[in-house]
Amino acid sequence: MKSAVRIILGAFFALSALAKLSSMESFELYIFSFGFAGFDLCSIAARLIIIVEFLIGFFLMFNLLSRPTKWLTALSLVGFSVFLLWRMLLGDKESCHCMGDLVDMNPLQSLGKNLILGLMLAYIWNHEGKLLKRQNLIAAISAAAVSVGLFLVSPPDLYYRNMSDSHDLSSEAFRPVADSLGLSSGKRAICFYSGSCEHCQHCASKMAGIIRRHSIPSERVSVLFMQTHENQDSVAVSFFAESGEGLELPYSYLHPFKFIPLTNGAMPLVVLFEDGELVKEYDYISIDEDEIASFFDDQR
To answer: Using CB atoms within 10 A as the burial measure, which of 17, 227, 256, 293 is most buried?
Structure first.
């Protein structure tokens, strides 16, 4: 019976890790939204959490390093629970991404889940089972394989940054559009989004985190939406509420026949302009938080 509980507990940890991996962008942005560190560090932290969680599950299921694994499981549950209590005290009722996008759980629900997992852990605590021969070697090889494998399957954006150089904006065609919208003076970041584009939604969350973390004046960051609905204002409001962490930015929208030739159909696109001159262009992966913050240094 205790072996079955141990396997179920391990399978749950492994499933939780895989669920986070399947929605990595959302998990990265969730960690970044707290403003503790830059996006690159948060993206690495997200992967380390997944690795630890998966290894706990794997070690529990196959009874590897039994006692150290149970201690690590207990510390993880306590750490996650303290975090969830903190979010509850701040009034957070949004998804905590404990199960990625697979299951939406608010902090209270996730805390209840941790209580059940803790009870399962307590039940199996003194059940060591038969130790496997050379289990230290098996555990080390497993840990190395999982760690390397995850970073190969889902490399952080910083891995691609030096290889990704976006040149999609037609700056000559955009100049009269910028003039007509009053976007030709001073230092500005302009984001090209579609309200229904998933990557645009993630990009908006990333930009909102950068703006807040570095106190970039929101009036210096404008959004150009491709018009996809008759009532585009309601789409924009929903977009900022759901995808931009509630940070509303100045926005305009262009008919697709005007929007698509400007970006060659690429979305999302973030460009830095100074007095109407293109300084830098990013796609979603190549966004450089430090570069954007430095660009606006004298505006804060």
So the answer is: 17
